[in-house]
Every structure is written in structure tokens, then in C-alpha cells.
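Lab notes, practical 5.
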Amino acid sequence: MNPAHLLHRQLRISTAQTCTAALPAPVLSVPYALLLVLLSLLICSAANAQNTVATIPSIGTVFPSMAAPGERVWIPGPTRLTVRDTLWIGGRPTALLRDAVSGWLAFDVPKDAAGGPQGLGVNAPAQQGSPVLNVLPPESAAGDVVIYVNPAAAAEIRSTFSERVKRFGAACQRGCPTELTDTLGRLSALTLPALQPLGTAPVGTVRSPAVALTPVRITPSAANVPSAPAVTPTPALNIQSLRLPNLTLPPLSSAAVVAARRNSNFCSWLGTALPTSGLPTGRVLALLGALFGDDLQVDPSGGFHPAQATPPFPNEKPGTVLEKLIGTGKGTGKGVTIHVLDTASSAGNSVSDPFVMGEPINYYNQIYTGLAGHGSMVGQIAGTVAPGAALQYQAVCDGAGNCSTLRTVQALCAVAAAAQQGGRHVINFSLGGPVPLVGLRLALQEVASLGVPTAASYGNTDDCAGLIPGDRCWHYPADWHAEFSVMGLPSLIAQRRRPTLLLSVAGWDIGTQEMATYNRAMRLKGVTAPPPSVQAPGEFWFGGRPYFGTSFAAPVVAGGLALWAQCNPGVPFLPLVLTPGTAPLNLAALGGCP
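Output from the prediction step:
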């Protein structure tokens, strides 16, 4: 049996790590003092979720802490390493070299480096729990970036953007690598485009009865499963306290801005795509974070792509398959809106989905070409489980499968706005990728704080294509599921298990009735991945053609959440059932009103 290639979306994303170490105090000369102080600005001004550095005990400081394959990364300042050592990024070695201008050690991210947070090792692959370098998708290496701006600071950032970058470049002229100085010069020539609100994406025409929302309090995870590295904002460093001889920058955060920031939520911010194409994206993310702190967050802009023996239930209707395998719910999901963020959009009663799978799909040794739709099929599955729920499609990807970071964040903020008006809401997110995107996480936190659960696809084995032992295969937002846990029943808490507002949904093989081999990293020896939080059947037929993968397992859970929300507050606890031959979840237990 040939391994199945899965129809799935890879929403690629960037990350952040907390600044955990400062440079040592000894200063040998004035130029070296300037260099160290400048380093401090780069290292510890990571006041937002895109922090600029990762610190490794035996290595020193790595700048930037996120970079695409082929991009250069430096180890500035004191380090125990020499050019005779070899640095490992996941399962890939890379050589160290000495920069002629700054004297810093440097390395290039391997062209085939695995995406997302990859462990760093010295002269051997990294061990579990080691510090990481966040590897961006290859297509983001020279792409645009998306910026999110605190509206209270927008005018100030716009008016000072170019001048701040220029001053930084001038101070860096003699003590920084030439590549970094060149990036600062080209960055200073850019003009910020017009900013648009994050919270005004179209919500559609769905009407739900007014139902009071009960906010759900997210608590620190007590789950006994590995979680993705947290993307936690850190306090801003006061640049003026650095006393750089050649760098004078007025503070950005006035008292009014600080007060406005405290009283605002993320979906009230502004966003735009900054045309940085041609500049190394990881370097741009780190520099903007260092210069503008809490009031400006940064992400890669996009470049995301969809991708996707004898069939066990050929041409069976999805409802029939579900009824045979896991039963059907007693409820209908009436009064609940399922928001499908994908390739399809809705206007009135019509649904448009221009996406067509570009690569042939091998399903049980039969090749299928030109599979049409992704989001529309996802919505049909959710509607099969919860036929009374209203389906709201929001296209965040175009017909070619390119998904927009900014449109995704705006769509989530539109859900938050709808939830604030009342009704009951569920999100289906059959998208994902290896790098944690700060805007995505903040927007998901906002909808979660309103009690809106999200079913996110766990990710397929093709997400890990090309990885080798020592690499770690990530898929966000699903890998954040433990961080979105909520207070549940005392018995569950005692077992260190809690319901979560972000469910990571793996595919359950409807033929073998166990965890499907198309799930992420299942067939790759030595490649590791965090576990999912729940399984669901993920193989269905539409129009005589198969659709399978975790993209199509997620809407089964989204529909189940709608059944629950019809009559119950909060979110249900859906355990991860791994016993072969045992149904992974019970839809009947989720539906039905007293």
C-alpha cells in the first residue's frame, strides 16, 4: 500500500523566544563597549512575542532567533565555540565561520532544515528540551512581513519609523556584520503602508438568536502532554538607558500610549503588509521587534500552500460512515454558528471555493487528479455532524492555495466581534504549519476568552516531508492545544487533564480503526511531534472522489462542539482514545437537550 498524500493546508508561521540572558559586564575598549551595548539593544529589546534572540548555555547568544533556510545567523559577543565546532539545527549540521568585520561567529541555516522550533546542539544533534532556533518556511526567506500596531502608537511609529532605523544603522556601521548594516539601510528606505483594522473583516449574513456568552477563563496548562514553546511577550527595554554614544532615540511609549495599550485587545489593533520582499525575513522580524517593542508585532506575510489498497467505505455518504463508526448526535447544533476559515467563502446562501488540488492524490493505489474544493468539503462534513448549525465560510486562502496571515487574523477577529454580539460559535481551522505565528496566537486567545472553541487539524505526514532523525515536526495552531486548557471537572483536574478551547484533531483510520498512518510523523522514525488532543474519522467521499487527512477530521470535532454548544455551557472534555477498534469519540454523548 502506497502512503497516502494528504489534502491539507500548511499555514506557515513564525515564532518567538524569551530573552533569557544579558551580555557580560567587562568592557575592553570603546569600540567593543559600543558593540556590546548595541548587542544589548538587539538582544533584550524583544518586548513583543517575536523576541530577537535565543540563548544556549555553551554557545552564547544567537541573533536572530528565527531565520529561513539559507539565511545567516550570528553568535555575537562571548562564546565558548570556535570555527572548529559544528552547530546542529535539529538533525542538520552547519559549519561555523568568523565574520571579518564584527568578529562574530556566524552560520547559515541549512537549506533542508526542518521548519519551526528546532533544537540546537554542539558537535552532535540537540537533545530533547534544548534551546531552539525557529526556522521559517523557505518561501518566507525574502518575502514581505505583516505588522500589527497598537492604534495609540500608530502615528508615532509611522512618523519615526525611517529615522529610528537610520540611527540604528549609523550606530551599527563599524561594529556589525556588513549584511546586518545593509539590511538596516534598505529597511530605513521603506514607507509604512496604510494601516487597516484587524477587527473589521466581513462577518457575513448569518443570524443567530441572542444567547448570553459565559467567558471561559484559560488557565496554565496542567496537561501531561508536551506543549509547544510559549510565545510570551516580555517587558520592553528602555532604549534610553543604554546610553549609546551614536544612537539617540526618543521613547515610543508615552503615558497615553501605555494606558491605551492596557485598555485594548488585540483585535482593536491595526495591521498591514510591509513590503520587505528581498530582505531576509528573520532579520527583519528581529530588528523591528528590537526597535519598536510592545507596540509593534511582526509575522511573515504568507506563502502558505494546500497539499493532500481498497477503500474501506467507497462512495458512502459521510453521514452513513459516521453513523456506522462513532454514532450520531441526538442534537442538531441549532443556534450555533460554525466558522470555517479556509479556501471557501459564503455570500448569502451561496458558497464559492475556487481551490483545486494541483498534485495527484494517491488513495489506496488509485490516483485522483484535480480534487476541487477544500474549505467547502470541510464545511459539508461539519454540517453533516451538526445539520442545524449555521455554516459561515471565510476565505483566508486564494484559489491557488496561498493563505494570508493578515486575512486569517482578521477573520478570527471577525469571529470575536460576532461572539461579542451574542450567539454560540465554533471555529474550524483545517490549516496549519511549522512556525508559531504571533498574530494567530493572539487572535485565538481573544476568541477563546469569549468562550469560542476551535477545532484545528493536527497535521499530516506530508507536513514532515524531508525530515530526518533529530528533527521535530510542528503544526500550529494545533500544537498550542495544552496552553488553551480550561478549568474542568475536579476528577479530570486530579488526573492532570482538562478540556481545551483549542483542540488538536488527528485522523482516525476508518479501515484499520486506529490512529491513521497519514497523521504527522507517524511513519518517520526518529522524527518527533507533540501528540494530538483528540482523534476523529478523517476519510470521506464527495462526488465519487475521496478526501482524507486531518483537515477532514477537524470538522467532525467542530460539528461535535456545535452539538454540545446547542444546550451546554463551556466545552466538553474529549479524551485522546488510542485503543485500536475503539471509537475515538462519541457524538451521541455531545448532543441532545434536556
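Observations recorded by the TA: The domain at 322-589 is CATH 3.40.50.200 (Rossmann fold). Residues 154-172 form the longest helix (19 residues).
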